[in-house]
UniProtKB/TrEMBL annotation:
<dbReference type="InterPro" id="IPR008310">
    <property type="entry name" value="UPF0735_ACT_dom-cont"/>
</dbReference>
<dbReference type="InterPro" id="IPR002912">
    <property type="entry name" value="ACT_dom"/>
</dbReference>
<feature type="domain" description="ACT">
    <location>
        <begin position="86"/>
        <end position="161"/>
    </location>
</feature>
<protein>
    <recommendedName>
        <fullName>UPF0735 ACT domain-containing protein KKC1_23840</fullName>
    </recommendedName>
</protein>
<dbReference type="Pfam" id="PF13291">
    <property type="entry name" value="ACT_4"/>
</dbReference>
<dbReference type="InterPro" id="IPR045865">
    <property type="entry name" value="ACT-like_dom_sf"/>
</dbReference>
<comment type="similarity">
    <text>Belongs to the UPF0735 family.</text>
</comment>
């Protein structure tokens, strides 16, 4: 998932003209130039390319396209660093499911701030968890992937971020 700044989607209007807003967008629906811009940024961040020229060549993107989009494209985990994220989860009502969720978050060094679990109905419990992401050892996307694949976890969504 990627975060797009609103001014990219509105023809380059400045943040002062429109106020800065962000959109959470699935990678699969993004234009190729934006996906490749994100790849170039990742190559540079990870040190897999030392210069912009080297990174755009590896990604198959023109320098002009990279410079056009670079200030408005961020992988989701970058935008979520040093934030509080609230998750909504649907869990099977079985012993140990919530414990595995909490251990997964703790294992990634997520700092859990609040947990709210509703009374289970029809074998499912709805849980909301707020956590700080500043100390995460992993990308938030990777933590969400692990949570979604835990036995007994039916659904995981981000419902808030501050």
């Amino acid at each position: 998932m990627y975060i797009l700044r609103k001014h990219i989607l509105e023809g380059g209007l400045s943040t002062a003209e429109r106020g800065e807003r962000f959109y959470l967008v699935r990678e699969s629906i993004l234009p190729e130039a934006i996906r490749k811009t994100a790849l170039v940024k990742m190559l540079l961040d990870k040190g897999e390319a030392k210069t912009v020229n080297e990174a755009v060549a590896k990604a198959g993107l023109s320098r002009s396209a990279y410079y056009k989009y670079r200030d408005g494209v961020f992988p989701f985990y970058t935008a979520a660093q040093e934030k509080i994220v609230t998750l909504s989860l649907t869990l099977e009502h079985r012993a140990g499911v919530l414990s595995r969720v909490l251990n997964t978050i703790a294992g990634a060094r997520g700092n859990i701030l609040t947990i709210n679990q509703n009374i289970p109905l029809q074998g499912l419990a709805h849980v909301s968890i707020s956590l700080e992401t500043a100390e995460l050892r992993e990308n938030l996307e990777d933590v969400l992937y692990k949570l979604r694949h835990l036995d007994g976890v039916k659904k995981v969504e981000i419902v808030g971020q501050s």
